[in-house]
Specification:
- There is one protein chain.
- With 166 residues, the chain is mainly beta.
- The chain contains two helices and eight strands; from the N terminus they run E-E-E-E-E-H-E-E-E-H.
- The chain has a five-stranded mixed beta sheet, with no helix packed on it.
- Strand 4 and strand 5 form a beta hairpin.
Length: 166
């Protein structure tokens, strides 16, 4: 199935990086129909931990038409987060509200990594970010013909676009 290029009315978000060190800065780029929205940051695990909630952000819907798949969507900064040094390394989710009344939610995943890898845990966690991005067709194309416009896959794809999977 081929998904449309997802132009105006696209709700989603992406981060400036797939990972950030403790104490580092990660920037979120968000498109939502909600007039105002919140971002809630969770550290995934057992139990899932609420780390921070940011409220009252102004919502705007954006587009990402071709060739956004290779150039990125180019959305402005929605929120810049300085990760506290106290946050443990791990997988995090930034959950934000969507829909004209804010009733829906979407996620942006990222990793907080230790400043000194291996200093507190010998466990290594990785996310399949390259795989997610390869199948993502926001902006018109993915690395696969079956979900790319004109059934022609892209040769290059950008991380600067929200994830969508077939």
């Amino acid at each position: 199935q081929c998904f449309p290029a997802l132009a105006l009315g696209l709700e989603g978000g992406y981060a400036s990086s797939t990972s950030v060190p403790q104490g580092g800065i990660i920037v979120f780029h968000i498109s939502t129909a909600a007039p105002t929205y919140s971002i809630t940051i969770y550290r995934e695990g057992s139990p899932r931990m609420l780390m921070k909630r940011i409220t009252g952000l102004p919502g705007t819907e954006r587009d990402c038409s071709e060739p956004g798949y290779s150039t990125g969507c180019g959305w402005p900064v929605s929120y810049q987060l300085q990760v506290p040094l106290s946050w443990p390394s791990g997988v995090y989710m930034a959950e934000f509200s969507t829909g004209s009344s804010g009733q829906g939610t979407l996620l942006i995943n990222f990793v907080v990594r230790e400043n000194t890898p291996g200093s507190t845990s010998p466990v290594f966690v990785t996310l399949a970010s390259n795989t997610y991005n390869a199948y993502n067709n926001v902006g018109g194309k993915s690395l696969y013909d079956y979900n790319s416009s004109s059934s022609i896959p892209a040769r290059v794809v950008s991380y600067n676009r929200p994830y969508r999977s077939p």
